[in-house]
Amino acid sequence: MPVTRLGDHERLWAVTTPSTAYVVGVEIDPATGEAVPLQKYWGPRIGEAAARQVAEASGGPSTPQGARRHENSFSQPAAGEELLPVDGGTRWGVPSLQVSFGRVRSVELRFTGARAHAEDGADRLDIELEDRHFPLRVILSIRAWHDSDVLERWVSVRNTDDDGLRFPGLSIGVTRLDSGSWFIPDADGYRYSGVFGAWGEEFQLQRAPLPVGELTFTSRQGVTGHQANPWIMIDGGRATEEHGEVFGVALAWSGSWRLTATQRPEGGAAVSAGFGHDGLLWDLRPGEEITTPPVLGLYGDGGFGAASRAWHEYARRHVLPEPAEERPVLYNSWEATAFDVTEAGQLALAEVAASIGVELFVMDDGWFGARDDDHRALGDWWPHRERFPDGLRGLFDGVRALGMRAGLWVEPEMVNRDSDLYRAHPEWVLRMDDRRQDEKRQQLVLNFAREDVREWATGWLDRLVTELGLDYFKWDMNRPFTQAGWPERDTGQDLLWIEHTRSVYRVMATLRERHPGLRIESCSSGGGRVDFGILRHTDEVWPSDNTDALDRQPLQHGFSQLYPAVTMSAWVTDSPNPGTRREVPLRYRFHVAMAGVLGIGGDLGEWSPAELEEAAGLVARYKAVRGVIQHGAQYRLAGTPGRERSAVQYVRDDQVVVLVYNPSGHGGRGPRWLRLTGLDPEALYEVTEGGDTGGVPGRLVQGSRLYGAALMGVGIRPAAWEPVGADHRSDMVVLRRVT
């Protein structure tokens, strides 16, 4: 039973996963009577007797003075171990819950009960609390899956004065509601890992000592954002890719968010994360309830690599709607045509795409309304009357006749002023009375929190899929929120920051329910909406508008820390790259894009016959191994991606795929021998693809057989890694276990 009450203690529980334990309890402060939910233990799995001992050793508010960390009249370090530190009493740290009851701005909770119950494939614990005076119920929920070490936590708050008669006129305002706080056990020193970035350079991995004080990562843009991603990993400063304890916290949310890691001067660290935005006030009217998105916690002792693989497996088992599918090779027409789309032009591209093995053809922007540029027609979702006078059916029938599936770019959350939709419904956009409406990219944001907007979007999206037989939407979202008001809701308008995102989820879920074969890609000017929240409703994400192969390597490295390859859309585009003007060989560009879900976005009409022939061969090689890449265990090998010799390895059943890169042919940086990992040391592995026919010791030769112990202990010398040669050399090596 993953959730166990410890002994006869009615307020102490152990929540276990296959490899870990999470012990929590509710202490009652003897001086005040306040209920304080505390994390007692988080680490390797332990038995029930040991769990009781660690709970007793950790103490709580009732522990005698001096048995805990140094406390004084200005400090209460025990608050760092609370599951949901409230704004109230003698706490001065980061609150996970802030509530005002009229002019009263302090929360005082009492324990009212707990319930452990089984769910499908999981077990769940709900800890119930309520304010000792005001009608506020708080439920802390913890879910443990039977097949994952990732724990899920969330919080619900409710105004229990359902008819408003007990406290007439009382205003309950929630100003911060995190999904929970996680205590990171004591260590000699703390180091954090996370990603930062900007448009075109998302997911840049950073590791640094966790400073004493508060370190906050956030997005205030209404979407997940390019500048950071809602996760953090913390270790004791000595973890490596394959060794050491790592604690990870991730928020499954696609709107504005905030994650704060606190290292206290007295020792100890905690991470609190949740949705929200500075300055918001959520009115909790009688009978109303707000539930947070899940905040996820993961402990492991196998270094950053094992942590990533555990996150990847969790995504496959409990997040992605269709995790077992092999994603098709895609072609997107944007970089070939931009807004200049016609049926004849798109079909010409489709014919070339089909000839090199593409399986899904996606027409991008420019197909609708009067969309001749990015200044007009967003919101007018019918075929461009001049470019497609007979509609889109002929185009997509032609695509299907070529043996490919059909996809279409849409941007449902945006509108141009110069559109029929805005002229008909100016009240549908985010706006504030007596304030201007700032545009970004000549766009305004539609308020998806409105039921009429949600129904409108569901209607035309459903109609497109039905009438055109679409298999795929590229769902884009190209600007952040500004003037994010909802005047018709008066004091309740701040709920739009929650309900907009949840309405996007609902529209996607409705479309998938009505059309089980429909697949959706999440895009937000590149990687602006990538998180475990949106991945519950989409099949893959677009991590960046930057398609330069060398820039993509560190970006994909950071992406892989949390998200699996099966979710990462990666394109091969033209050389010189349209954005950076860097020239990179076609083979290298393909090998970088093969590390995820392979797509092609170049102007195929300009590719030479030799390039098309080479592309067809590389597409065929990818198809032969994509099951391993998309669904296998991923290992990050060797040097810094995009800067020096590096490699990434995938293992699934008896197959092994290794993508090898050397961006600088004459550079001396990086390793010379490539040591594989994750293999059976006693097994023999045969090289079935890649390698070299030369006689250099350690050089792979196709058909050769090597023991797993040799591949992991000494390694191989890839031809692409030789120190003298051309820039941008790469290879794909495939091995098969034969004994």
From TrEMBL:
Species per Swiss-Prot/TrEMBL record: Sphaerisporangium dianthi
SUPFAM superfamilies: (Trans)glycosidases (SSF51445)
A Pfam family matched in the record: Glyco_hydro_36N
Family membership: Belongs to the glycosyl hydrolase.
The reaction(s) this protein catalyses: Hydrolysis of terminal, non-reducing alpha-D-galactose residues in alpha-D-galactosides, including galactose oligosaccharides, galactomannans and galactolipids
GO molecular function: alpha-galactosidase activity
EC number: 3.2.1.22
Entry keyword set: Glycosidase, Hydrolase
Residue intervals of the Glycosyl hydrolase family 36 N-terminal domain: 37-284
InterPro entries reported in the protein's UniProt record: Aldolase_TIM (IPR013785), Alpga-gal_N_sf (IPR038417), Alpha-glycosidase_related (IPR050985), GH (IPR017853), Glyco_hydro_27/36_CS (IPR000111), Glyco_hydro_36 (IPR002252), Glyco_hydro_36_C (IPR031705), Glyco_hydro_36_N (IPR031704)
Top-rank taxon, per record: Bacteria
Ranges for region Disordered: 53-87
Glycosyl hydrolase family 36 C-terminal domain location: 646-735
Protein name, per record: Alpha-galactosidase
